[in-house]
Amino acid sequence: MTNKYFPEEKIQTNDLYFICYMIERVARKLHQKNCFVVNSIGKDGLEHLISVAKVLHAKNPEEVEDEWIEEYGLSKGDFDIALVDRDLVEKIPSATQMGKVYQRLISDTLQQGETEVDGIFRVYNDSLCDVIDNYNCSAYYEPSYVIARAYYQGGF
Questions:
Q1: What is the pLDDT of residue 138?
Q2: Which of 45, 57, 44 has the alpha carbon at shortest distance from 15?
Q3: Tens-place pLDDT, residues 130-142
Q4: 22, 27, 56, 57 from 60: Cα distances, Å
Q5: With contact defined as beta carbons under 8 Å apart, do 116 and 47 qualify?
Q6: Closest by alpha carbon to 53, among 18, 7, 25, 8?
């Protein structure tokens, strides 16, 4: 995919990672699922955000969260990713770690002719995300090729 504002510039893996990381942060802050954030921002919004990711990356992440929430009218929900069985989960993965998990899954399953934004919509709206985001199991901790294989097979 090329940058929306600079067509000679390609979207980089780090741009995709930053967007996945911020999706995770915003979803956690609002107590929403990641797909809510993705679908609420929409394709045009994500094309803009991934094209300016290098600039946003230099800003305070909390400021970026607040900007996304205000600009895209994102609302609070009641899904708390941190509600886990403490007998099974000592520490939930960070937004940084989960951003990397999703960036790898999108990159590993990107189809010919598909943009990174298309990949974001495809992956975050797949039922596999409910398994990956269930920290009571270890799906998020699996190597990226195992997660990609689970995506193609429809589950773990």
A1: 86
A2: 57
A3: 999 999 988 999 9
A4: 11, 17, 8, 8
A5: no
A6: 18
